[in-house]
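pls ignore typos typing on phone
NAP + seq
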Amino acid sequence: MHYRRLGSSGLQLSALSFGAWVTFGSQIGRGTARELVATAWDHGINFFDNAESYAKGEAEAVMGDVIADLRLPRDGYCVSSKVFFGSAREPRPTQRGLSRKHVTDACHAALRRLRVDYLDLYYCHRPDPDVPIVETVWAMDALVRQGKVLYWGTSEWSAAQIREAHEAARVHHLHAPSMEQPQYNLLHRERVETEYAPLYAQYGMGTTTFSPLASGLLTGKYNAGIPADARLGLEGMEWLQPTVLGQDDGRLSRARRYTALAAEMGFAPATLAIAWCLRNPHVSSVILGASRPDQLLQNLAALDLANELGEDIWARVEAAME
Ligand SMILES: NC(=O)c1ccc[n+]([C@@H]2O[C@H](COP(=O)([O-])OP(=O)(O)OC[C@H]3O[C@@H](n4cnc5c(N)ncnc54)[C@H](OP(=O)(O)O)[C@@H]3O)[C@@H](O)[C@H]2O)c1
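k done
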């Protein structure tokens, strides 16, 4: 494993990390979740990503349970949560969003479910148009000062919103966000590479990027339809199909071109796609998802590939995506 600093902070995260979305608490059972965390840990992964909304809190409960069961040393791993969507089935106004109240309540609930005394990373899962950004910055700062959160950040905020949070922190002498959690993959790169470009140097912003395989599309598993046991075929995940497969925008055909090229060059498409994410020096950690340990093992091979492959390969990959 390689470790990278979270932006200009002193925290070293594994270049590949592991997240719980869709899988923990819903798609997979506790036994598989345990195997996945154990495999990740054995390969040097030190960051496990979660959110209040994943399986309505159940993903955090399962992760907390298996981490405790595996007796991972608390000072050896980092765990995150995210606040915004809520974990209640039908959230009341105070059970979602980024108000001081919900940011605080959600932190306490995540600590309980994950069975930890503090969250290493705590994200605002989306911007909240109904709460002044300065209120959220104050709430995050309070949690940091109370020792309940070490680093806080955002997820899928615009560059302008991130700037506003930094400005509020500067004016009021509060802890500023350290990281952003954006989507980043071969099919979705504009925000990380262009919109955020000035923020890396200006604020020392780190990124923990998500969906390196575009929810599985870049493995080629959807090239010929939706397998029943894959994410897009799961009951309740129908809403994700148009986003992942695209609608008359050539997304599926670009993915097909990509997977054909990867096969032609002799690489597993998943491994190559993750290696591509790792090439970006502004990426602190690529958060992987997996529903089975063999997927995780294949994805972990991206570390070596990222070091081995030359520019000629990457030029061919990028040309195939146009
Ligand atoms: N901040 C946010 O808004 C946000 C949003 C999304 C995700 N995330 C975080 O990022 C993590 C990763 O995102 P993601 O799960 O979307 O990542 P992803 O890598 O794009 O998709 C992972 C899924 O692809 C399939 N897969 C993975 N490796 C494979 C392989 N080698 N061969 C075949 N299929 C493979 C598996 O699904 P199937 O086996 O079911 O097909 C797996 O669950 C999440 O767990 C979460 O922690 C954050």
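The pocket of NAP is lined by residues 19-23, 49, 125, 155-156, 181, 210-216, 219, 221, 230-231, 270, 287-291, 295, 298-299 (CB under 6 Å). The mean pLDDT is 97. more later
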